[in-house]
Amino acid sequence: MVKIDCETVKHSPPSGTRLPTLALWALVFAVTLAAYWPALDAGFIWDDSGHVTRPELRSASGLARIWFEPGATQQYYPLLHSAFWLEHQLWGDRAAGYHLLNVLLHALGACLLGTVLRRLQMPGAWLAAALFAVHPVCVESVAWISEQKNTLFTVLYLGAALAYLRFDAECRRKAYVWATCLFVAAVLTKTVAATLPAALLVVFWWRRGQLTWRADVVPLLPWFAFGLLAGVMTAWVEHTWIGAQGADFALGWPERLLVAGRAPWFYLSKLLWPAPLIFTYPRWEIDAGVAWQYLFPAATLGALVLFWSWRHRQRGPLAAALFFGGSLFPALGFINVYPFIYSYVADHFQYLAMIGILALIAASLIRLPTTWRNGIAASALVALTVLTWRQCGTYRDAETLYKETLRQNPASWMAHNNLAILLVDTGRAAEAIPHYEQALQLRKDYVEAEKNIGFALVTVGRPAEALPHLERAVRLRPTYAEAQNNLGIALMALGRTAEGMAAFRSALQLKPGYAVAHVNLGLALARAGDTAQALACFERAARLDPAYADAELNWGVALRALGRTPEALPHLTRAVQLAPNLGPAHFHLALAFKQLGRETEAASHFQTASDLGFRPPMMR
Question: Is the pLDDT of residue 19 over 70?
């Protein structure tokens, strides 16, 4: 344990510091809610399903898995996923609750920013807070449920910073303990919080002009150690569980330096001129043999040298640049993170880093004559609020997001693929196929798109055309269980039942817990006349995924086929509860009720099936 010498570290509290008034907090919350009001009506997008707690993790044992089983959640951020776990207990799958909390966390973060900057006697502290609250670059973090990791960790980060500043001023051990607890919580929410101890050293240098080992560095050594450990863990998870490896991430050190030199200028440009803001920006072609690409790192180095030369007169620009670059460091290309497969930059990467630049801008504005200062500040805040309101519309739903992304970045193969998946899921498979084809043109050997277009072609009744795509997907990635499953679907559609069953079994060998493949194997066995074995497959699928309506439906249908209608009834009822708009579930439940002599209930479900557009085969 690090010994803290209070006589050494104690500093006088900043003179003239006062707590922010309730009115300031209320104003920031009001402005933030106004700017982000459209986000409250938004739905789930892209990988939100990987963050909103999955059915198998919603119990107390699931909460334990979140903490002690790497891979149980999309990323090993246990405090974040514990928060999502708690939120699911409160409002389930209703997106509005998640969006409202995200907006409130962002507003709280802005207020804490104003409080921290005021404690540091930074001119324009609350102007910086307001700029952060309504800046449209933040929309990606606030309007996207998955990015609650940003809003939550920033609140904890700034809370830790505020507590540590109190410790630095008063040397109260209780403040140090509180600061450490908040810092650990922030890191367990998102690892970029590990940059906080370095940021604090930058702040102390800015305030005092120098650092001392015993007073400034030693108390932060445990924080550096914990942050380093968390960073190593996150890099391992990104590589092992998320897939940040392979040819797309095979950059040499010259290329990584080019990315690191270019990214800060990109982010700075979006802060100063936030248009266009794109969910997935075009991925740069990084080539160490192209001379002009070295202009970016040269400019970065030149700016740092310039700010260093000014340090005796004005330390603010260098401190802001160091905070900006240091907070961006995990996303500058030195460490592989999965989003680099789509683009080397993203708005949510600079959610924390931007506060250093906004603080510098606000402090500079405050020094202008009053008329100029007020006019510029008011105009900027109004313009940014309007832009944020408009940008929130992009995140209304997944289809809007992908279409807007493609409007601004037609080369986004990810958006083509994801939009096509959405179109298939909503019964528009024919519309999806051109998007899959475009994705395959943009990205060679795109295994996921090969697998997906195969399924879409089967869905529209073209299994013979699907087969080459699925065979190619399996050839490119023999361990891809989902591709094996879709290959089995195509083979079944072509009447090649034995080969289809073999493909489903291959999928299950690769992924034994794959509930969809269990159901498909069961359907193939039922077609081959082995209803008893099919029943076992459906039961297995339902136990693997308790929210899987098709598993319950087919379990019930198989029981009825075996003459066990009373046993079938609860499974068919469960299928209807899980998927009220599933016509076949209502139809087969009606048959079960009819067979049991419950005519009134049978008639009701027959009518519901008909209203949903379902017609039994003989009526088509």
Answer: no
pLDDT, one tens digit per residue, over 358-391 is: 999 999 999 999 889 999 999 999 999 999 999 9
Give 126-178 pLDDT, tens digit per residue: 999 999 999 999 999 999 999 999 999 999 999 999 999 999 998 889 999 99
- Cα–Cα dist 142/303, whole Å: 31
Burial string for 33-58 (b: 16+ CB within 10 Å, else e) reads bebbebbbebbbbbebeebbbbeebb
DSSP string, 407-460: HH-TT-HHHHHHHHHHHHHTT-HHHHHHHHHHHHHHSTT-HHHHHHHHHHHHHT
Say which DSSP state 480 is in: -
Residue 210 CA to chain centroid, in angstroms? 39
Q: How far apart are CA 602 and CA 531, in angstroms?
A: 25
Integer Rg of the chain from CA:
28
pTM recorded for the entire structure = 0.90
Q: Compute the distance between CA of residue 373 and CA of residue 367 in angstroms, rounded to an integer.
A: 8
Average pLDDT estimate for 54-77: 91
Determine the Cα–Cα distance for residues 359 and 365; give it in Å rounded to an integer.
10
Residue given tokens 């809007």 in the structure block = 400
Q: Whole-angstrom Cα distance, residue 312 to residue 289?
A: 38
How many angstroms from the chain centroid is the CA of residue 398?
A: 13
